[in-house]
């Protein structure tokens, strides 16, 4: 039950971050800069929380380095793809397409980690992904929609799935405290994005740009840091085949928040009710699975 609660909580936080990122991009339409600012703020949040729980008092580089390596891709470069998807699809559709991640993560967990595949888990995963597919295929689309956004979202889903698999394998195999592991991934992700900006924007006033983006992406960064901590803690206590589909409910939360705060600008159609019902049904099936 701990893994179920944490997985759902991570889904809520990441669902909310879609809307926060969209608002940040309206003020600072720069996905790469927004990606760095979000991850950097998330790292600061992780340091405070992990230190509060005493998980930064003793750091063994032998345990931490795999998470530093993983963080280069996720949340490093994956965050650039994440923001590009939010920019081109809108937060609700981007999170919906990303909800296919459990399909990749679940298949890899069963094949590589030897986790059991029960009928309940399979049915719940199919329902969650089916709901996401219905939303993605809606005919009504917002004015800012760009087809390439689907490529960003699918690539992000694949990277998120790899994080779930390796995160679960590393926390289980190395005994690294989960909050320390999450902090390490956020640290290397922030450094990776900073190096990327320095290399690609040599002639720009980078420090000034980062300062200007801090305010617009502050809420997104706080949500991102909290979501990462909760997700890694969930993977530390539960199987990928349970945590990943529950985490993918960010599609539902992102949709509801977009309907509430963005309204018609997201162009969400009538299939929303049926798709949401499928996602909620999938959550229920997975949640009651022992």
What is the terminal-to-terminal distance?
9 Å
Task: Tell me, rounded to a whole number, the average pLDDT.
Answer: 83
Radius of gyration, rounded?
18 Å
**What is the β-strand count?**
0
Shape category: globular
Query: Strand pairing plus helix content: what structural class?
Result: mainly alpha
Overall domain count: 1
Strand fraction band?
under 5%
Number of helices: 13
What share of the residues lie within helices? Answer: over 70%
Compressed to H and E, one letter per element, the order equals HHHHHHHHHHHHH
The biggest beta sheet reads: none
Detail the poorly predicted runs: none
Structure description:
The chain has 290 residues and is mostly helical. The protein has one domain. Helix content is 79%, strand content 0%. The protein has 13 helices and no strands. It is globular and about 45 Å long. The termini are close together.
